[in-house]
Amino acid sequence: MNLETLILVELVILLVGTTYAWYNWYLVLKGRCKTCSVSVHDNPFTSKCFVGAIFFTLALLINTLMLFV
User: Fold this and answer.
1) Does some domain include residue 52?
2) Do 40 and 51 form a contact (C-beta atoms < 8 A)?
3) pLDDT tens column, 34-53
4) Inside any domain, residue 29
5) Cβ(38)–Cβ(32) under 8 Å?
6) Conformation bin of residue 31: beta by default, left when phi > 0, alpha when psi is -120 to 50
7) Which residue positions in the chain have pLDDT lower than 50?
8) Rounded Cα gap, residues 65 and 69, in angstroms
């Protein structure tokens, strides 16, 4: 397995993770998240789901840049 194949596998995993993270943040935004505290619904940008979605998106961007460099 060469490096390009590993980067492509990582890309697929990050795509799935990013989609899941943003979906969870959407649930927080709509107030349907059962795992978040009540105060998070006042400001969804302070939720753990939003921070995770940002980190997954940044990792996906870095991975995509590695494919083209």
Assistant:
1) yes
2) no
3) 776 656 667 778 888 889 99
4) yes
5) no
6) left
7) none
8) 6
Nearest of 40, 38, 10 to residue 25 by alpha carbon: 40
The encoded tokens of residue 56 equal 């997954």
Counting every residue written for the chain, the total comes to: 69
Long-range Cβ pairs for the range 18-22 (8 Å, 24+): 18/53, 18/56, 18/57, 18/59, 18/60, 21/49, 21/52, 21/53, 21/56, 21/57, 22/53, 22/57
Domain of residue 58: give its range. Answer: 6-10+22-33+43-68
DSSP characters over 16-37: HHHHHHHHHHHHHHHT--SSS-
> In this structure, which amino acid lies at residue 45?
F
